[in-house]
Amino acid sequence: MVTPTFATLDGWLSHLESAHPVGIDMGLQRIRLVRDAMNDGHGLSFDCPVITVGGTNGKGSTCTLMESMLLAAGYKVACHTSPHLLHFNERARLNGASATDAALLPHFEAVEQARKRLATPVSLTYFEFTLLAILDLFAAAKPDVVILEVGLGGRLDATNMIDADVAVITSVDIDHTQYLGTTREAIGLEKAGIFRAGRPAIIGDPLPPESMLRYGESLGTDLWLVGKDFRYETIEGDRQQWSYLGRAMNRRSLAFPSLRGANQLLNTSAALGALEALRDRLPVNAQAVREGLATVELPGRFQVLAGRPTVILDVAHNPHAAAVLAQNLGSMGYFPFTYAVFGAMDDKDIEQIVTTMKGDIDHWNVTALPTPRAASVERLTTVVRELTGSETTEHSVKGFDSPEAAFADAISRVTESDRIVVFGSFVTVAEVMAYRRRLHH
Asked: Which of 74, 140, 353, 394 is the most buried (most CB within 10 A)?
C-alpha cells in the first residue's frame, strides 16, 4: 500500500531527503540487496552496452556529448546525470527528453516494494533510491545504450553496481576530500573503481594519477590514454575545425562542439574514444558525429546567455573547475567590470577557488544557499575580503541571503558593457536560472 503522500514525485523526493540517516553513505552492499530483490528477484540488468562516466569535472558534458552523437546516429539512448539544476526529471533522459513524473512514479514504487521484501530491511540514500528507480525505468524502455554519470568517486558509488562495458574518466582533481582522500593519487584510485577486467577504460585526464594506471593494469583493463591511444589536433589559428585521432579511427575536420569552453575538446575526445571502443556494437557515422556536436546543449556549463549585459552561468565548484572558468573568462575579450554571484558548499576549498578567480572579478556578490551544506555569507565575505584586498569604487564585496538577491543587485549596478558570472555550486546557478525564468514569464 502506498501512503497518499507518495502519490506524487514530489512526495517521494521529500520523503527520501530525510528517510536515510545520512545524505551520503558510501558502499554498495545495501543497494545491491535491493537491486537483486527487484523484478520479483530477477534483479536489474541491461541487454545493451552501458557506459559509465566518472571524474572530478566534465562528467555531465561528456555524457551529454555522447548522448547527442548517439541520438543523431538514430539510437535509442538512456542517460542518467546528476545533480539536476531545476527539476529532478533532468536526471533521467530517454531519447534526449526528461522523463515525466508519471513515467517515473511506478519505478519509485517498484524500488520501495523490493526494499520491503528484504528479510532485513535496509534504508537507501536519496541518490541510491532514485538511481534504482531511474535504472528500472531505463530497463523497461529497452534502449540501445545506457550512459551513467557517476555520483561521487567511483569504487563505492551506487552507479558501480552496474558492470559497464566502457568506463570513462574525464579528469582527476581534489574534491570531496572527506570521502575520497586528500591527494590526486588517493582520489584517482577511488575513481578507477569503475574499471572492469578486459574492458576499455577511456582516460581523458592528460596527467592521470599513477594509482589509477597501476590499478587498471593489475585488473587487466584495456586502458585508453589521451595523448597515447587517442588525442585531438587543432590547426594554429583555426577556430573552426579540429580532428580526433584514435586507435583505429580518425575523425577529421570536425566543427567545435556547441558547448563553449577550453576543456570541451578534451571532453569530446574522451566521448569519441568511448564511441570508438564500442564501434562494433554501436557504429556512429561521421554525419552523426557532426550533427551531435552541433546540437549538443548543457545548461550551466560556461553557458553565455543571449543579450546584454553578458551573463555567464557555470557550475564550477572546485579549484580545477574554477581554473577552467578563469581561462574561459580570460578568452572572452574586454569587459570594463565583471560582477560575480558566488555561493559555495562549506566543504569546498573556497580559499583556492577565490584565489583562482580573483584576477577576473571586480565586484563580488557572495550569497547564502538554501541548503545546510552551504558556506555562510560571513565565511565567504571574510575569505573574499582577505584574498582580494580593500574595497574601492572599482572593487567591492557584498553579502546576500539568496542568489536571487545577489543577482538582482548585480543587475542594478552593471552597465550594458559589463558582465556577470554566476558560479560556485549547482545550487547557485539553479537559483539564478529559476529567478530569471520567473522574470521572463
From this structure: 353
Q: What are phi and psi of 74, to 5 degrees?
A: 95, 10
Task: Compute and round to an integer the Cα radius of gyration of the chain.
Answer: 22
pLDDT, one tens digit per residue, over 86-129 is 999 999 999 999 999 999 999 999 999 999 999 988 999 999 99
Query: Which triple of cell numbers denotes residue 373?
Result: 551544506
First CA to last CA distance, the chain: 40
Q: Among residues 414, 401, 321, which one has the least CA distance to residue 366? A: 401
Give the homologous superfamily in CATH for domain 303-440. Mur ligase, C-terminal domain (3.90.190.20)
Helix (H) / strand (E) containing 274: helix 264-277
Q: Which helix (H) or strand (E) holds 80?
A: strand 77-80
CATH architecture of 4-295: 3-Layer(aba) Sandwich (3.40)
d(CA 352, CA 320): 9
Q: Which single residue is written with the C-alpha cell 549585459?
A: 309
> How far is Cα 12 from Cα 18, in angstroms, rounded to an integer?
11
All three cell numbers of 5, joined, read: 503522500
CA pair distance 64, 264, nearest whole angstrom: 11
